[in-house]
Amino acid sequence: MKNPWADLPKPLVYLAPMSGVTNRAYRQIVKQFHSDVLFPEFVSIDGMHFGSEKTNVLLEYDEIERPIIAQVFGARPAYFFEAAQKVVELGFDGVDINFGCPAPKVAKNGGGCALLGDLGLCREIIQATLDGAAGRIPVSVKTRMSFGKTHVREFCRVIADLPLANLCVHGRPFEKPYLGSANLDPIREAKTLIPFPVTASGHAHTPEAAKETLDYTGCDGVALARGTFGKPWIGKQIKDYLETGTYTEPTLSEKLNVMLEHARLVERYHTNRPFVEIRKILGWYVRDFPNAANYRSQLVRVNTIQEIEQIVTQIQK
Questions:
Q1: Which of 13, 101, 213, 234 pairs as cysteine with 106 (C-beta 3.0–4.6 A)?
Q2: Which of 101, 122, 156, 168 is flagged as catalytic?
Q3: pLDDT on residue 155
């Protein structure tokens, strides 16, 4: 069994799974710059159990995306066992359990971060997933610093003896999933409590922030999420900064070329209303440009590649 968490050089810099974002086009445009591993959007074990077509589509990937890991969420151990078996059958390089999603539609059904409210169930779910994977692919987990009164340190103590491949900790609580600065102390503490690798999420939106996270926590890598919005090249910038102490910013022309390539990938892979899929992402690319509001107002209405090309021509003038 190959284990990307163990086999790849540290520190890892990789794109985390994000609902509604990390589709095939998004993953592949980020991979062109740098991502040690990739994840599709996280999927429901219930959807997998009942053969949801939407879930099946979310799990499609191309060989160029390897190593690629499927992240699953839910609350039933038996379904996690099934999901791990299915992930193996689909040829993924690992399966990751989502104990970190703060979305109300996930948490209200007892999944994601809400699982931290029952640490016994967390362990049962991990064991079921390990049993389903049966040593054929590595099993990893993602969580947050806290849920209610449960802190990640308690979670670490419950899972420390299990043969997991990685723990990713997001440095914000369930109750404030995106507000304020990420707290690096729980990640640093988690690193001292478990024997397997720990990666950090929540403070890698710039190369400087990523280095600060790695230096302070001693962790084995950083997961990139919203920091990639409109900046799919940030992984390469982080790697360059860690290796040389410097990094470069793409030129305006280079940024626009990436934006166009991204749009073309969406058109190729997402044939059902592709330009609805890409509109918000195009807005991310231009948000720091002069006259950005005007360009965004045009980009949210595009319906063809030609319309996007016309707006790019305007920007370059």
A1: 101
A2: 101
A3: 95
What tokens were used for 136? Answer: 């054929």
Regarding pTM above 0.85, the answer is yes
Q: How confident is the model at residue 80 (pLDDT cuts 50, 70, 90)?
A: very high
Q: How far is CA 312 from CA 33, 260, 263, in A?
A: 21, 8, 12
Kindly state the helix (H) or strand (E) to which residue 99 belongs, with its residue range: strand 95-99
Burial of 269 (0-12, 13-18, 19+ CB in 10 A): middle
Distance of CA 108 to CAs 117, 235, 304, Å? 12, 33, 38
Who contacts 57 (Cβ-Cβ below 8 Å, separation ≥6)?
none
In 185-286, which ranges are continuous DSSP H helix?
A: 185-193, 207-217, 234-244, 252-269, 274-286
285 closest CA partner among 315, 306, 310: 315
Percent of the chain with pLDDT over 90: 81
**Nearest alpha carbon to residue 30 among 261, 272, 316, 245:** 261
Structure tokens at 70: 């499927």
Instruction: Assess contact for 143 and 200: CB atoms under 8 A.
Output: no
Number of domains in the chain: 2
- Give the pLDDT band of residue 106 (cuts 50, 70, 90): low
Do 217 and 301 lie in one domain? The reply is: no
29 band by pLDDT with thresholds 50, 70 and 90: very high
Q: Is 101 a catalytic residue?
A: yes
Express each pLDDT in 161-176 by its tens digit: 999 999 999 988 766 6
Domain that holds residue 192: 4-244
Judged against a pLDDT cut of 90, whether residue 111 lies above it is answered with no
Is residue 110 over pLDDT 90?
no
Beta bridge partner(s), residue 73: 44
What mean pLDDT comes out for the span 83-94? 98
Query: Which of 244, 268, 287 is the C-terminal boundary of a domain?
Result: 244
Question: What is the token pair recorded at 285?
Answer: 């690319």
- Domain co-membership, 270 together with 311: yes
Nearest to 133 by CA among 184, 181, 218, 69: 69
Residue 157 bridge partners (DSSP)? none
